[in-house]
Amino acid sequence: MASSLPLPLPARLTVPTFVQRKAERRPLVVVTAYDVAQARLADRAGVDAILVGDSLGMVTLGYDTPLPVTLEDILRHTQAVARGLSGGRRGPEDEARGARHALLIADLPFGAYGVSVEEGVRHSVRLVAEGGAQAVKLEGAGPVMLETVRRATDLGVPMMGHLGMTPQSLHRFGGFRAQGKTDEAADALLAAAHALVAAGVFGIVLEVIPRALARRVTQAVPVPTIGIGAGPDCDGQVQVLHDLVGLAEGPTKKHARRYVEAGRLLREALAAYAHDVRERRFPTDENSV
Known about the structure:
43% helix, TIM Barrel, alpha/beta
């Protein structure tokens, strides 16, 4: 594990520089974050983009699926992440790196788009104007989604697509299942990717699809593909922070890798605190005013 920060980094990754990474063949690193502390840690680690995903429903709000997450939930957590990225720099390593680096992307949650173009566009604008996001992501490539991308992009909201195992469609899929496994499904997904590009997306998340299909889409479209459970041939990767650092319950997902057991470390630290309080070892005179 690296012990130092990846210095130096550009002051800030923008949508155009995000797209440019594909031509440069420089993999994009994306991770989720949902609050100030997580945003600062991810940005200081040098990730290229932070996604305030609807996964917050499961890892932060305690739901079994992302479906109960509301626009107000995403908006509030996007605001928190934006505050984490815009201020609070204190350490010498931050002065060395300069200003914030990560691009901030917010999810449109289930029910916040798809019913009408106007509603989807309005909510996308809110995530940028009120939430502080620099871009917005939506799932699928149906007619309403495509027109939402066109209209929001026309208004100045950069839009990202999401194909494959789209979690908001889990009931239609019969659960969290891999997609694009038949020739027909693969062709449909590739067509959807082309349609999203034509509508104006600057990138596409590909989730839980065969590696060969992810490679095919990546080679076919001019915008970056960001994989999650789609193999190493995408232009970048996105993972849920809790999966990477051991804060998620249960075994590690097949498409993730656990880099540290932070959950165990935190439990041990809290247990030590509880023990010291009960044994009257904390606070001491050093901790008193």
